[in-house]
Design goal:
2 copies of one chain form a homodimer. The first copy, chain A, is an alpha/beta fold. Chain A contains 23 helices and 31 strands. In chain A, the strands form 6 sheets. A 7-stranded mixed sheet of chain A has the order 9-8-11-10-12-13-14, with helices on both faces. In chain A, strands 21, 26, 27, 28, 29, 30 and 31 form a 7-stranded antiparallel sheet that branches. In chain A, strands 15, 16, 17, 18, 19 and 20 form a 6-stranded parallel sheet that branches.
């Protein structure tokens, strides 16, 4: 158990603002606590002698003995004082129900800053403010003002919406879905999703962590906390505000700016979170993750008494990363013996419409005994010869015996009710729609892969950090926040290969540089260098294939074009660069920008139309490990073009992967780098070279 | 009502094979009919005097008076005779329940051919064989051997799986989902999905046509039948065997080879069918399509008492083609007056947690009155102040008053039961998960678009069909089924532009041809012409930029390379072709192949990596109309590259669209063309030119 153990297993809870006034929040919480809490409840209210028959204290400091948790429900204007009193009284865990903080304008935001300061001063573990409260079924604690208490179970659940908790409990209680702990996160002034993920990861009684979030307070902390946990405990989250419309609705609801959806997507993926879009998925997946073992392989057996629904189930499997199991000869023989003519012994097994429970169960037994089978779907349509209850009983027994995950689809109405209850009791999910049964099995696969994931530390390359810092400072000294080709040295300092080249400030120097850098072909590339010219090509600021004789004139031309474009443009000179042979070369792009929640992101894709038209790019939250960098190359749809498609020689993929990591290290080392694009990073069979670079810095961060 | 009216509204039904033997199919059907059928039932069985107390006849010919429908349940070996007897007796509608036909090996397949011949001889409307039977709630007819009768309602339902019908009825009857007609299609020896689509399209009492299909017997007929119908009646289908695994399961289940999934996708789309993947979607969509009006625009208002679920709903809207409505100033003013401080008057409207029914309903009323709003989601979480029943009553009234479609999400458990029943009674779908409510509204949008679709006839271009036939015959005479560049003339005959060029058979002729076809640049392209060499480029069989001086030598080289590659390759000569200027040119590909169910398909995409690596192509069932051809260009992700992406001049898109149509006309005119690829079809701002073509013919079809 973690440091929040006392929040979820207190002996004594004080309600500050408890009252007998029916319909009030203080009354509802006190009443909920009194009804079921196994510990003791202490009402605090200077204007009452007793509340609900319990002795009431004027203030929390005058309560004798230890109070483990204080629930604060007093009006907003005295809530911070009430929390301070808790700190003074030595209470270290406080739940602030009171609203009127950052969700309520600038005055509220100021109040929340005060609250945070008090929490820091007294080192308080503080939930809220603007929270529905917390529940812990282990101690019968319902410290919320909602109408329903959770039933005991293996799911711990956090939600940034209190109403969603109320709705879920109303619904879950009618379905015998039980919870361990429930937290309404409120404004997350102190404790946030990362704290609860860590706490529940340490709690052996929590089998699944569920969450409804509208934002993540601190992306990197969340990734770290989640990775610690997902080895033992799956985390399933709805993060709303996914779409543009949703993000703007979330912003208006919580008052905070949403980060980029791509950052959330990457961050959740890197954290090992199972992300879902709908409430239905949230609870479907929680159910099977808490009820069934993980499959050892991705092959599924389908056993049915109806061919058509068997085909639908097979389609549903084809829609996932699961596959239809191929049975061993032994299995086929056994099925052939057990089943009548007309039955199908190949997967999906069709025991046909006249099957009784015995035949159906025998087929399930044989299928689950096949070493190729990782999981099974039991799929039954109503017939005169089959009893759903008997089938359910047999399925429960066989699932237990074989220890493989099973999901069921009983395709009927109320006639399946008793059977569904039996299966559900045994942790076997049951749906009318076989596609939902299959999707549930697929999430077991997903979680097994998450569990198997090794989170290697990012490689730390030997780089020249001091030189990089000097280059960034020099740019800052020039009073600019944009750097272009003059920042090639920055890449060089971090070991990212660049073509030979140099920035010069006269035609003669250009000629000398060209002699030095030109390869066998004798030709060079020349580019104008100016912080005021972002798109050099557009103004004729780039010349390729410049012969030695033409270097001087080209220098003059480039500068003239820059002046024509913008008469006061600061021209730092001209870059003279080795011209790379472009046969077998592919232009890629590696870039970075910063997300308000997750910090630096790294982007990879192919250049040109692939990034501009097809938007075929992928991102990760930095720092990225070697395997994460490698997975970025796998991610893009155009990856075959790097790997020898259409008879070309494959490029040096390892050099791309290393460049991604080195860039990740650079932007992690220097928070001053806001955006940086290497475009193109030319990849050839021999390696990569960063041909052009552009970056924006925040001088305040240097 | 169509020609199948007598199947669904008979006065008198004979059961051939009726029996008192409990547990038998003949008993079950007779019993089901006797219990509820409003007409009369006539048992036929030579071995029984009465069946279930009804007078029984020895054979159908001895039944006095008119029999409208005969249900045949006798054993397979006498089933065809029984059907013949029906024909002799003048019965024109027969349902064959008996199994043991094409689903059961070659003997069964032969029996089915006999059955089909008998049906043809007597012009029978025949359902099955291997069918569960048919139902018509209008006349209380349950002529199936399933355990459940359908309840009356507006949905007509056909299924290629009898078990699926049993399952659906068991489930639907507990949810008060009602049906008009139900048909178990069985093996579709005579009547198939197209017949029932046509019949139900003519039936004013059928509001929605639902189907579970594993295959379409005749794609073009189905498209034609569906298009006739979708103006009035939506068609929602699950077509299983979508995935590779599913298709192979379907093949083993029904014994028929599935056509290509891409053909089904295109065909259903062109037919105006709403295709769904899961049972849940099938009935969710049927519910709203039969219960709610169509929206006039795609903007949705969300009215809720809970911010978090409001954000989730907004996300769900963002996932569809719907959008969040922007309210008028009048609406915002009205909401501002109606709602308290802290409420959100912008969409999603948050009436906040303490709202009673009155406030909630007022907000719904205002939202539905906004001219920008096309539909609404009513989304409620349980609170102390809100009654779900009152909210449901108000929602039903307001939906009726405003006439806009509404879907509801009542986020609670059994506490919502009564409210759900009230909404459901009024045709308003209600789910726990708001995403399902939104998806339901989205299908109304989809159907509105289908309804608005004008199915223009394909353009018939003025072509030289005779010349095309001669070219194909000439190839056949050469004893080949593959044509390459020598088939350029075929394209020319159908008005598809080709570069100037000619096939020659000597170096001198090549030189002359080069002089004639070379453009200003003076250079030509030369290609080997051989039916035995499919990939000319791979063997060095194509040379570009051939100067006048090099033409003779190049001729010899190309022929030598062909001989080196395959010494007995038939070399028809060398094609000398005008070399097109490739600036501003984009290579596209237009092709065709044949699907066993849908006939010729037309394919379009960009050439090179786009087709080979990114698989960015789109298909349609031929013949395609102009608007369908135009939509193919819209479909591909790389379309921006044709439309001026990255500063290039847009290509002549209308020339591409015309080429697609002309190719469609060609393959429709000549069933002998099995496959044809124009690759590349070079598109420039000025037009298109087919630079290379390859085709395979079926000589039997010429």
């Amino acid at each position: 158990m973690g440091r929040l153990a006392s929040l979820f297993a207190p002996d004594r809870v004080a309600v500050i603002g408890a009252t007998d006034r029916s319909g009030s929040v203080g009354h509802a919480i006190t009443s909920n606590l009194r009804d079921e809490f196994s510990g003791s409840v202490v009402p605090v209210n200077p204007n009452a002698g007793t509340v609900l028959g319990l002795d009431c204290y004027d203030d929390v400091q005058s309560v004798p003995g230890t109070v483990d948790v204080a629930i604060v429900v007093v009006p907003a204007d005295i809530a911070v004082d009430a929390v301070t009193d808790c700190g003074e009284a030595g209470i270290d865990t406080v739940v602030v129900i009171t609203a009127g903080f950052s969700e309520a304008g600038s005055e509220g935001a100021a109040r929340e800053r005060e609250l945070r300061a008090v929490a820091e001063e007294y080192d308080l573990d503080l939930v809220g403010p603007n929270s529905l409260g917390v529940m812990s079924t282990a101690v019968g604690m319902n410290a919320t003002f909602g109408p329903e208490s959770a039933q005991p179970g293996p799911i711990s659940f956090m939600s940034q919406s209190g109403a969603f908790i109320t709705a879920v409990l109303d619904w879950a209680n009618d379905r015998d879905i039980g919870f361990r702990d429930v937290v309404s996160l409120g404004n997350k002034a102190v404790l946030d999703e990362s704290d609860f993920v860590a706490e529940w990861g340490d709690d052996p009684e929590t089998d699944v962590i569920l969450g409804y979030l509208e934002g993540i307070a601190d992306g990197p902390s969340f990734i770290e906390a989640a990775r610690e946990v997902t080895d033992d405990t799956p985390i399933v989250l709805v993060k709303s505000g996914r779409t543009e419309a949703g993000a703007s609705a979330a912003a208006s609801h919580t008052g905070t700016m949403a980060g980029s959806e791509r950052a959330y997507e990457a961050g959740f993926d890197q954290a090992g979170v199972v992300r879902v879009d709908t409430v239905q998925e949230l609870f479907d997946y929680a159910g099977i993750l808490s009820g069934q073992p993980l499959p050892e392989n991705d092959s599924v057996a389908v056993v049915t008494n109806a061919g058509g629904p068997g085909v639908m189930t097979t389609d549903a499997i084809g829609d996932t990363a699961l596959s239809m199991a191929s049975f061993t000869d032994g299995t086929l023989d056994a099925l052939g013996e057990a089943l009548p003519d007309g039955a199908n012994i190949y997967n999906p097994i069709d025991v046909i419409g006249d099957a009784d429970t015995e035949r159906f169960a025998e087929a399930i037994d044989i299928a689950l005994g096949d070493p190729n089978v990782g999981a099974a779907v039991v799929l039954a349509c109503p017939t005169a010869t089959l009893s759903f209850e008997e089938l359910a009983a047999a399925t429960v027994e066989l699932q237990d015996e074989h220890g493989l995950p099973v999901a069921a689809s009983l395709m009927g109405g109320d006639s399946t009710r008793a059977a569904r209850a039996m299966l559900s009791e045994a942790g076997i999910p049951t749906y009318f729609d076989p596609a939902r049964a299959v999707d549930s099995l697929d999430v077991l696969r997903e979680y097994r892969e998450i569990q198997a994931c090794e989170y290697a530390a990012p490689t730390t390359f030997d780089v020249d950090r001091e030189r990089a810092r000097e280059i960034l400072r020099a740019a800052a000294d020039r009073n600019t926040n944009r750097l272009g080709v003059e920042a090639m040295d920055l890449l060089d300092a971090y070991g990212i290969p660049t073509p030979d080249g140099e920035v010069v400030d006269s035609p003669d120097a250009a000629r000398e540089a060209a002699e030095r850098v030109a390869g066998d072909a004798g030709e060079v590339v020349m580019k104008i260098v100016s912080p005021d010219i972002l798109h050099k090509s557009d103004i004729g600021g780039v010349e390729v294939g410049v012969t030695p004789e033409a270097v001087r004139d080209t220098y003059e031309d480039l500068v003239a074009r820059a002046r024509n474009y913008q008469s006061d443009a600061r021209v730092l000179g001209v870059q003279v660069q080795e011209q790379l042979p472009l046969d077998d070369a592919t232009e890629t792009i590696v870039g970075t920008n910063r997300d308000p929640q997750f910090g630096p992101l790294v982007l990879f894709g192919l250049g040109g139309i692939f990034v501009e038209v097809l938007e075929d790019t992928t991102v990760r939250v930095a720092p990225v490990s070697e395997s994460e960098a490698a997975s970025m190359v796998d991610d893009i749809e155009s990856a075959p073009l790097l790997r020898g498609a259409r008879g070309r020689e494959p490029v040096a993929e390892d050099a791309i992967v290393e460049t991604i990591q080195r860039l990740s290290q650079l932007v992690t080392d220097f928070p001053a780098i806001l955006e940086l694009d290497i475009n193109p990073l030319v990849a050839t069979p021999d390696g990569v070279r960063a041909v052009d670079v552009r970056l924006t810095i925040d001088k305040e961060e240097l």
